[in-house]
Amino acid sequence: MTYTDTNKAKEYLNKIAKLVEVELDRYIPLEEPESLFTAMRYSLLGGGKRIRAALAALTAYGEEELAMPAACALEMVHAYSLIHDDLPGMDNDDFRRGKPSCHKAFDEATALLAGDALLTKAFEVVLETKNNPLLVTLELAKAAGASGMVGGQVLDLASEGKKISYDELKVIHSKKTGALITVALRMGALAAKRENMLAKYTIYGEQLGLAFQITDDILDVTGDATLLGKTLGKDATQGKSTYPRLFGLEKSQQLAKEAVEKAILAIEGVPGEEILSGLANYILVREK
Amino acid sequence: MTYTDTNKAKEYLNKIAKLVEVELDRYIPLEEPESLFTAMRYSLLGGGKRIRAALAALTAYGEEELAMPAACALEMVHAYSLIHDDLPGMDNDDFRRGKPSCHKAFDEATALLAGDALLTKAFEVVLETKNNPLLVTLELAKAAGASGMVGGQVLDLASEGKKISYDELKVIHSKKTGALITVALRMGALAAKRENMLAKYTIYGEQLGLAFQITDDILDVTGDATLLGKTLGKDATQGKSTYPRLFGLEKSQQLAKEAVEKAILAIEGVPGEEILSGLANYILVREK
Question: Under a CB-based contact definition with an 8 Å cutoff, are residues B188 and B71 in contact?
Answer without folding.
Answer: yes
